[in-house]
Amino acid sequence: MKSIYLDLTSILNHALERASENLSFNKLLVQIGVDPSNITFDAVVQRLADIIVANINVASMCALVGAGFYAATMLMRTMVPLRVFGIISALFFMAYGAFAGAISTFLMYLLLLPINSWRLYQMRNLVKRARIAAQGDLSMDWLKPFMNQRAYRRGDVLFRKGQPANEMYLTVTGKFLVTEIGVELPPGRLMGELGFITPNNKRTQTVECIESGEVLTVTYDRLLEIYFENPEFGYYFLRLASDRLIQNIARLEGIIEQNKAKLPAASQETAREIESEV
Predict the structure, then answer these.
(1) Which one-letter DSSP state was computed for residue 202?
(2) Sign of CA dihedral 110, 116, 120, 121
(3) For a disulfide at 59, which of 21, 100, 111, 141, Cβ 3.0-4.6 Å?
(4) According to the model, what pLDDT value does residue 133 have?
(5) Which neighbouring-strand residues pair with 149?
(6) What is the distance between the alpha carbons of residues 262 and 270, in angstroms, rounded to a whole number?
(7) What is the phi/psi pair of residue 175, to 5°?
(8) Could you count the other beta carbons within 10 Å of the beta carbon of residue 112?
(9) Positions in the chain whose pLDDT score sits under 70
(10) What pLDDT does 209 receive?
(11) H or E stretch including 177?
């Protein structure tokens, strides 16, 4: 092992000797306090170590730790730990700015701190709501901060069956009609969520405004962002879509039962007409 180290040192020393022939490299050596005429690998390492030790203080340590946490955020796959590491990094950089007297650095990370904290709160709340939803609560209140408000007048068509779908709706005020099945949607109902999971993202029904009101909208692209930021959201949306499908199946079963009940009566009426003609 020692012989390998000696060979590596000799190679590096030779490389440094060749590099010292470059004037720019000589200037760099002079700046760090190394004699270009008597240059060795050990001398350069020792000088760099001396420079590092001489410049170690509370401010530089805070900057080093902050940079470490900032670099760690690049490795995070989900948003919650990313925001946590971002907050820690901002705190250390703020400490660096305070100790080093770098006011601009301190103010910049002071502004980033509440932004990261607020986004962390939103993500934590999203995770909490998603977990509750997976257990049966289908409240949409948690998603409202990510949605935009839009107004519709009576007679407006929000979307038609077969059209490309790119957003989901939540009714706030007014009334809306699912044309194909004649179902009215009061405030607090979700619309257009099935288009998010249907092939080619096509609308499965037509929805028309029958009483002027407002809705909240969120694009499917934003839903995908929320999903990838917090995979727990998948539990929520799966529960939401399955609940809607169960409702549709129950509605179809009711229609079938009604038609079955009408069939005997219609058959009896037809039989009476035939008897009367005979």
Answers:
(1) B
(2) positive
(3) 100
(4) 54
(5) 216
(6) 12
(7) -135, 150
(8) 16
(9) 1-56, 129-140, 229-236, 263-278
(10) 93
(11) strand 175-178
Helices H / strands E in the chain, number of each:
8, 8
CB burial string 101-111: b at 16+ within 10 A, e below:
eeeebbeebee
**DSSP-based helix, strand, coil % in the chain, nearest 5:** 65, 15, 20
Query: Whole-angstrom Cα distance, residue 264 to residue 271?
Result: 10
The closest alpha carbon to 202, from 169, 166, 164, belongs to 164
Rounded-to-integer distance, Cα 274 and Cα 267, Å:
11
Q: Are 143 and 169 in contact, with CB atoms under 8 Å apart?
A: no
Angstrom distance (rounded) from CA 232 to CA 235: 6
pTM: 0.44
pLDDT at 27: 55
pLDDT at 261: 73
Position 275, amino acid: E
Q: Do 120 and 87 contact (CB within 8 A), yes or no?
A: yes
pLDDT value for 278? 45
Beta carbons of 138 and 171 less than 8 angstroms apart:
no
Helix (H) or strand (E) holding 83: helix 79-100
Give the pLDDT of residue 87.
92
Rounded-to-integer distance, Cα 212 and Cα 253, Å: 32
The pLDDT, as a whole number, for residue 6 is 44
